[in-house]
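From the methods appendix. Each design record in this collection lists the tokenized structure first, followed by the designed amino acid sequence. Records were kept in a plain field format so they could be parsed without special tools. The example shown here is representative of the layout used throughout.

RECORD:
FOLD TOKENS (287 positions):
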């Protein structure tokens, strides 16, 4: 007897990749967008590595300040510059505020101008212009004066002692308030100061040997220059303009003046074509 075998058909499942057929279908457009950013991954990795490196001890150690190179030193010392900056060897070079350091230097009375720049990995370059004492002034206390009229300490620096030479005292004929201190600019208090200093600089540049003998310099009410010689205290009055020519004229007349006046008190060359000489025997005039 034949057996009829009934076999059940196995059910099969089918998946369609047709869009919209199932919520589980893979969206290729999103995958494509992700692939667009793939080239950026190495760049982002470099940034992350750099951030980690900059925060590491190995990075900071290579930028420790180990020396300061100072350009323009004449009267000051490298040790003094380091002290003024407020820095210490071992400070992080990258974290130093250059403008703040430059300001500290320029606040020091002996420094006129300062520029500070880094030279990685461990060097700081400081360029300065020092102030130079060119005269003395007495306003309550005695100060030095630079070419801008800035008051400098009375005490002479060790390196200054060999080059300072004989400097004149600026005579103003009146006193100032006692509030004037080192670093104050006398030119803001008295407009005669820049005029006197300008004349003195020109005269000294022209004939430094003669100017060694000048002990005091001032300005007369009419704007003329007046100075007193060391030794006999001879007072000389000159027109303010053309210092070099006025000194040439004066020196050419000096032998004759001393020949005719054994002890002159003053010489006045302010008047065109005339030389007025005052002495113990009265006033003499030469045409």
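DESIGN:
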């Amino acid at each position: 007897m034949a057996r009829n075998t009934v076999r059940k058909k196995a059910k099969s499942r089918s998946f369609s990749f047709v869009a919209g057929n199932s919520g589980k279908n893979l969206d290729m457009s999103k995958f494509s967008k992700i692939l667009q950013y793939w080239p950026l991954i190495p760049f982002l990795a470099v940034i992350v590595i750099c951030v980690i490196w900059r925060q590491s001890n190995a990075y900071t150690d290579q930028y420790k300040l180990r020396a300061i190179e100072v350009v323009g030193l004449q009267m000051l010392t490298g040790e003094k510059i380091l002290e003024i900056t407020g820095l210490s060897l071992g400070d992080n070079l990258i974290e130093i505020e250059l403008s703040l350091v430059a300001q500290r230097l320029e606040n020091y009375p002996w420094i006129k101008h300062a520029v500070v720049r880094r030279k990685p990995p461990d060097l700081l370059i400081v360029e300065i212009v020092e102030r130079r004492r060119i005269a003395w002034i007495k306003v309550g206390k005695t100060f030095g004066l630079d070419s801008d009229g800035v008051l400098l300490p009375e005490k002479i620096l060790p390196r200054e002692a060999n080059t300072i030479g004989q400097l004149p005292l600026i005579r103003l004929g009146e006193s100032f308030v006692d509030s004037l201190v080192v670093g104050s600019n006398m030119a803001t208090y008295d407009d005669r100061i820049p005029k006197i200093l300008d004349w003195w600089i020109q005269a000294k540049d022209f004939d430094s040997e003669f100017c060694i003998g000048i002990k005091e310099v001032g300005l007369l009410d009419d704007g003329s220059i007046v100075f007193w010689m060391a030794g006999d205290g001879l007072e000389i009055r000159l027109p303010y303009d053309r210092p070099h020519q006025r000194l040439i004229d004066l020196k050419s007349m000096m032998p004759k003046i001393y020949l005719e006046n054994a002890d002159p008190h003053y010489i006045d060359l302010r008047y065109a074509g005339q030389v007025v000489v005052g002495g113990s025997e009265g006033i003499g005039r030469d045409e």
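APPENDIX NOTE: The chain has eight helices and 13 strands.
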